[in-house]
Amino acid sequence: MLSLLYQEGPSTEGIFRRSGSAKTCKELKEKLDSGAEVDLACESIFVTASLFKDFLRNIPGSILSSQLCDKWVSVMDQGNNEEKIKNIQRLIEQLPRANVVLLRYIFGVLHGIEMRSEENQMNAFNLAICIAPSLLWPPVSSTPDTESEFTKKISSLVQFLTENCCRIFGEEITSLFGEI
User: Fold this and answer.
1) Count of CB atoms within 10 A of residue 97's CB?
2) Residue 100 and residue 82: Cα distance in Å, rounded?
3) Element (H, E) at 104
4) I need a surface site. Which of 57, 87, 92, 103 has the fewest CB within 10 A?
């Protein structure tokens, strides 16, 4: 899934913004959940992107860990960019290894898409708006106003992560998928 998004995402206008067919997504999700083989290369890249966001939303406690939610939310209010990067790296160290590995690949994909934003209209801000709600959510439900403010803060964090992913995760993030 990530490999396809890495390959096709940078040349796809509105990737992660446009939704795939709800019917197709539901059918493919059921197949994937049952363990059946699914050839996503035969599907619209928007279906793949929608399925991937759904996968992220179904990670228990979120990939960035709802237990660290307050720390993630406050990290963007702390100091200059260098301090933010160091604080983000400390938070990443507190995540399970599987989450960190997946985050590296996710931000490798987002970086590749952002690098071609003139073509695909998906700069770091637009990507963050589309993907942030799938990466972290508060551990308890809240009012619409609080939720709106939370979404803005997490979007700002994801934008910063995307723009600084090479410094946060290391330069090798740009070559995680090799030559596909």
Assistant:
1) 7
2) 20
3) helix 97-115
4) 57
Rounded Cα–Cα distance for residues 147 and 136 (Å): 12
Q: What is the pLDDT of residues 47-106, one digit of tens each?
A: 999 999 999 999 999 999 999 999 999 999 988 999 999 999 999 999 999 999 999 999
Rounding to the nearest 10 degrees, give the CA dihedral for residues 130, 134, 135, 136: 110
Amino acid of residue 169 = F
Question: What is the average pLDDT score of the chain?
Answer: 93
Helix axes 22-34, 45-57, angle to 10 degrees: 60
Q: Within a 10 A sphere around the Cβ of 33, how many other Cβ atoms?
A: 9
Confidence (pTM): 0.92
Closest CA to 55 of 6, 10, 2, 104: 2
35 Rama sector, left if φ>0, alpha if ψ -120 to 50, beta otherwise: left
